[in-house]
Every structure is written in structure tokens, then in C-alpha cells.
Amino acid sequence: MANGNGTAWADKFAKTPSDYKPEERFIDRVEQAVSRAFLKVQEHKSIVSEDTLADQFHHGLLHRDSPLSASFNEIMGDIVTDPTDQESTKKLLEISAKFGQIRRAARRFGAVRTAEMTEQFDRAGNGKTGDGNAVQGHSDDVLVTLKRFKAAGISSEEVQDYLDEHARASVALTMHPTDPQSPEYAKASMNFDRVLENPDTTKDELEEAIRLLLNTPYTGVNKTAPDMVDHILNVANNIYDAADFQYDKIDAALARSGYSDIKIRTPLVDVSTWVAGDGDGNPLADVAALERMIDGSRQWIHERYLAEVDRLLENDVPAEMTSFTRNVGTLREKLETDGYTAPEVLAQELRGYAQGLHGLGEEDRATDFERFAHKVDTFGFHGVTIDIRHNSRDVNVTLSRISEATGEMKAEAFLKLDADARKDIINQWLDDPVIVGRMQALKPEDLVKDTANDDDQTAARVLGRMQLIAENPDMSNRLILAECGSAADVMAGLLVSKAAGNLTGEEDASLKIVPLTESVKELKQLPGLVDDLLDNRHYRRHVEAMGDRMEIMIAKSDTVRQDGMAAVGAQNEAIGNAVLHGHLKNVDVEVFVGGGGDTVTRGATRISENATIVAAAVGRAAMIHLEKAFGRVPTDEEVGGLVESIHLQPVTATVQGMELQKFSGVDVAEYTLKTTISRNLLSAAQVANEVLAEKVYGANEDERLHMLVAARDAEIGYAAGIEQ
Asked: Which one, out of 44, 258, 503, 704, has a CA that is 20 to 30 A from the CA of 483?
């Protein structure tokens, strides 16, 4: 379909439908407004001919005095002044919410375009001050971050280490109950974002996407388990496609910044989900639901890999490479029949093809195979990992039923023990391989003495789910313990995990037992909890098996909602001290941030900023620690010496409910991942004192002017739109 000049669009809605119901009239007027705006925008001198339809839509919708914006504002006024009855009012308000969705999509699109403008500015050579000591640009840009590394004199070897350890965006995708969208509307919304970002979108296609968005029910019945699986995998599709952009842009940034000798050797993205994994207070998150998510994720990534191979075979292959085509066809057959024993085997074979193609001078084709291998490194044969979460009480209940079923202790007696006594008895059981063997022989139904007893059913559900993870160890690397109040709770999680057959404290162990704090009281106890756990021989052995790393989780929105905004300070203090306490015991503490600090929107934090927040918290904790140790204010050199020795890890963050819109299109997903990776790299360098804060964030008048111009053109603050 040709774009045309929009006349047909305008004619289609020329008639005023005064006999329509209010909500129908609203939809019609929206489309009229869009049509009129396109005609005006195309005539506007500031819009150049090569602008895409999405650019025009963005300018027309967000500029205050544009005809599209004015028309929308007028229509919005009608919602307040023209309600005829309660039912119509509800429908009008729903369309108002949909209009807000359209504006947010335009803002996200505008934020991505603004970032691209800024990157072009930086790549044009405007990246340094006159004396060469400070690099211009925004810390969301990987190129700017790498240029700062170069200006600070960081060697290629050090940057390679930073890239291996910190160039990773780690996100956990959830479907929160606070998200009111129906499954159908969620699909329509994602479709609209994809249409908007496509440079080849026609007016008819945009009209169809808008009409679908406006006519699809915003709310509806609660999402079923299959609905949630489908939606999360649709989001994962965007992240999968965005991975190519990540590799390409970071490769290009390394070359432009003087680090062309550095290679991307580790996955840039780590994606997990809580769908079917979050069993805290949710009896529907049973074994069947978890199995459905596992099967769905495996099938999804399998289909993506087959499509990758088909795409590689579609490319014209010279006649002298017929043997190559035959070999790739064999690769597809092996994929289709599950002929690869492990993803590492597939990745190695793909890199072998790439090496051969380089030898034949087929550089572009070789790069395609290398990118495919990187995706296999990232998504394996699992696709998206599943974070398992259960309440600490439920895990203790499960262990109590296990102990009774094996004859070790009555369930009621176990639950009456205080935290210290529970920890002691758990250590004794872990010391005895015979007891552990009896526990591992149990089946979920062995824990049910009374089918009407909720705790018996909970214990069977928890054990069954953990046994399923033991059968699929690549599908999960976290057991999160909600409302974790003591080391005994964590040790209960460790023993239940082991009883279910998961590897603990031995080679190839991969399941982290993660304490989740959800109150200020728990936050204050967190540093002591880290100490207690790392002093426990069984937990320490488990941490050592996973490379001397443990993970803690902070429920940001839950603590703020429960204890008020003062909880934010307690969160940062707990994070800094927990990381420091782990460091003092030679363990790297990874931080998992759940949601945002907002009590209403939940999960609305900028995930790219978490690394900066953690770095600042660690610096403050180090200063206070030394002040107590020395009995005086420490010098900058003393604080810097301690902070430099801390090995900061990338921060994982949940992306909840409507915040999944940060990944609603490939361009937006790429932007979100890119900014997170850049901030992780920068924060790690700052903690190591390789890059000074004033050099990193200092901006002269020229830089500030450029940023203001970019923000003005987008009618939003720099990069803020993507978070709205």
C-alpha cells in the first residue's frame, strides 16, 4: 500500500456522525483528527521528506499546537462534558485510557528517536571537551561510556573484563495483578507499537492498528495461565530480536572508541519470568502451570532457532558453496529432531561455520552465524528462565511435612521451633546423607495426610514444583523466599531444594536461594542475615559452588507501601551494607530489585538506573564502615581503596504489569536493554574508581544546549518518555 497524501483517509471520515453513541463518536473523531493531522504535518516545513509515518505521527501527537494534539485535547474535553449515562461514561473513560496508551506509545517512540539523534551527534566527533579530559554525551549511550573509559586510560584488558562481567541487562518479566489490561488489549497494544516503529508502515496499516486498539476491550476476565504464557513470550520475542541490535551496536561502539581488539564473549541479556513461577499465595501456580510455562518456553525458542536456520538458507549461496548449504540443512534436521545434547554443542557448531565462512571471504554470512551463536549462548534450549517464588512460611511448612513423612520430627513440633533451633536441626539433617536420601525418595502425595488440610496441599505443591525444576535444571536458577526473616528460612529453602533433587553445594549447582525482604524490619536485618548465611557451612558451600556469589532481593514497592517513603532510605542502606558484608567475607552479593518505589504504579522505576543506585549505596556503606572502624571520618583515599576492591555485579530488576511496555516493540526493547548495559558498565567503573563521577556526568554549555534541543524536538525530557 502506498502512503499517498492522506486525502482518502480524510474523505473517509468527512461526515459528522451525530447519531452515533458517544463512544462511537469518540472513535470516529479520533480517526478524523489523525487524518487531518497527517495532512497538516506533511505540509509542515519542519518535517522533511524522509521522515517515516511514525515520525509524523509522533510530531503531530506530542507537539502542543499541532492539529492532531489539539483535536485529541478537544475530544478529551468531551469525555467530561458529554456523558449521557453511566454505561456510556464507563466506555468513554475506557477510551480515554486507550488514548493515554497511544500517547505513551508515541512518547516511547520519541524517546528512542531522541536517543538515536544524540548517538549520531556523539558519533559525529562531538564526544570530547577541548582538553580531551571529559567526554560529552549521555551515560545511556554505550559508545559514550566506552569513550569515557578510553579518556580515563582504561586498558583493553580491563575493558574486556568489564564487558564480560557487567555488559548485561538482567530483567524478570512479571504479570502483576495491578495490570488491568485484557489479554486481547495487551496484544492490540503491542501490535500498535510494532506498527508505529516500522519505517514502512502505511496510513492504512496505522489506521487499522489504531482502530483495533480503540475497539478492543481494555479490561475483561482475568488472564488465564495460557494467556500469561503467550503474553510473556510475545514480549520475549521483542527481546530476542533486539539482541541482534545489541551485538551490532556494541561491536560498532568498541571499534569507534578505540577498543576494536575487544570481543563480546558473554550474553548481553538475561531474561527470566515470574509467570507460573510465583507461587506465593497463589495455589493456581501449581505443577501443571509450571510445566505449561516450561513447555511453552522450550517450544518458543525451538521455533525461533528453526526460523533462524531457514533465514540463513534463504540467502543466495554461490554454487561453489553447495556443500555448505547441505551442512546447514543437516543442522536444521538435528535441531528439528532435538539432536543436540546441549546448547553449547549447537553454539560451537555455529561458530565453526562462521570460521569457515570467514576463510571464504563471506564476512556478512559469517557474522549471521556468529550472531546466531550468541543467541544460543543467551537463550539456550530453555528460552526464558522461570524464577520460583514461595513464601518462607510455605517452605517451612513443606519441610515440616517432609520431616514427618521421613520420621525425623512431627510437623507441628518443627514449626514450633524458634529460628535458631530450626537452623540447628536443618544443619543436622543436611549433615546426614541417609536422612537426605529418605527425603529425596518422597513423592508430593506422601506429604498429604489430610486432603482437606491446606498446609498439606501447599507442601505437596511446593515439593512437586521443586521436583519439576530438578528435572529441568536449565529452566530456573532462583528460588525466592518471600517474607524472609531469618537464616533459618533460607536454610529451609536450601534443604527443600535438595530434598526435591536439585544440586546444592556441589559441582554444577545453579539454583540460588534468594532471601526477599518486604518490610523495613527485614531490611534492617538483611546485613546480619548475609553474615549468618555466609558463616553457615552448608550455605557457604552452596555459594562457593556457584562462584562465590549469592543474591538478595529487595521488594521496593512493597516496603514503601507498608512503611512509607522513609523505606527508600532503608532500602539503599540495606543494599549497601549487604554488598559490603558479603565482600568482607569474600563473596559477591548480587542485588535483585523488585518493582519500583511508587506505591501505586509498582515497577515504575527506570531499570537502567538501578546500577547507579546500588553503586552509590555501596559507596556510602563503605564510608560509614570505615568511620566506625577508625573512630574518625575516613579520607577519600581510604574510602576509595575499600570501594575499589568491591566487585559490583549487574543488578536484576522485575518489569511488572504495564511496565512491560518497555519491551513492547523491538526498537523500544533495544533502547531499554542498551541503556541498562551502559549504566552497568559505567557504575562498575565508578565503583572501581576508574572513572570519576565529575568526568562522567560533567557537561559543558554545548552539551547542555544539545540535550535541550533534542528534548524540545521530542516534546519530552531526554529519554523520560520511554518510562511513562
From this structure: 503
Length of the chain: 724
Helix (H, G, I), strand (E, B) or coil at 54: helix
CA-to-CA distance for 496 and 395, rounded, in angstroms? Answer: 7
**How far are the Cα atoms of 106, 700, 717 from residue 713, in angstroms, in the given order?**
13, 20, 10
* Spatial distance between the Cα atoms of 459 and 446, rounded to a whole number of angstroms: 10
Sign of torsion over alpha carbons 268, 305, 242, 101: negative
- pTM exceeds cut of 0.70: yes
- Order of all β-strands in the sheet with 385-386: 385-386, 269-273, 169-173, 652-655, 588-594, 549-555, 512-517, 478-482, 388-391
pLDDT tens-digit series, residues 276-302: 999 998 888 999 999 999 999 999 999
Matching residue, cell 527425603? 439
| Strands in 573-693 per DSSP E | 588-594, 652-655
Q: How far apart are alpha carbons 244 and 398 in whole angstroms?
A: 43
Rounded Cα gap, residues 720 and 718, in angstroms: 5
Please check the confidence at residue 243 and state whether its pLDDT lies above 70: yes
Nearest 5°: the CA angle 173, 474, 285 is: 50
Pair 564, 520: CB distance under 8 Å: no
Least trusted range by pLDDT, from 42-46, 304-308, 309-313, 687-691:
42-46
Instruction: Dig out the grid coordinates for 405 from the structure.
Output: 513423612
Identify the H or E element spanning 113.
Answer: helix 86-123
**Cβ atoms of 163 and 265 closer than 8 Å:** yes
Distance CA 651, CA 168 (A): 9
* Cell numbers found for residue 265: 564473549
End-to-end CA distance of the chain: 32
373: closest CA among 255, 267, 294, 298?
267
